[in-house]
Amino acid sequence: MVRLRKLTKEEFERYKAYSIQDYAKDLVHSGNATNETALQSAMNEFNQILPNGLETPCNYMYVVMTEEEEAIGFIWYGNSSYGEEMAFIFDVFILEPYRNNGYGTETISEVEKEAKLRGYKKMGLNVFRFNEGAHSLYVRCGYKAFEQFEGNIHMEKDIES
Predict the structure, then answer these.
(1) Cβ neighbours, 10 Å, residue 141
(2) 53-85 pLDDT, tens per residue?
(3) Which of 11, 37, 12, 10 minimizes the C-alpha distance to 23?
(4) Which of 75, 106, 103, 107 is nearest to 88 (CA)?
(5) How far apart are CA 150 and CA 34, in angstroms?
(6) What is the rounded CA–CA span in Å between residue 54 and residue 129?
(7) DSSP 3-state of 151
(8) CA-CA to 119 of 20 to 30 Å: which in 7, 28, 38, 113?
(9) What interhelical angle do 38-49 and 9-30 show, nearest 10?
(10) Torsion 115-120-122-125 (CA) sign
């Protein structure tokens, strides 16, 4: 069983630095950016979504904790550009040693429950085509593709019922 703990300001600063670098690598790997443009693109997108950092309204960032209070991952979701009814998972990450043990599925389930309580009716997310492990996880969690372009697949799930 996982528990979600809000990210601290210090954790946010570390996450931001890591996330921008990691996202830039993914943009290059997916073919959505070049080595020369990826870092600036990742930084611009991160700052556009979170103009006030951790204090940006309607964005929820958590550390994923085990029952033993061990931090094993991270998840961030918030408002989407697809309308008020859809929350969007911007990032989910489970540390390598904990993958394939159900923690990703539990984490997504917990976020879906919370999003539903916040009034969202759907959850959406982006997965890069090359990331077969993540895509497989999302399909197992009930997500279906609704838009595909370049190296991306946008997926959604109805969480209303």
Answers:
(1) 17
(2) 999 999 999 999 999 999 999 999 999 988 889
(3) 37
(4) 75
(5) 14
(6) 29
(7) coil
(8) 7
(9) 130
(10) negative
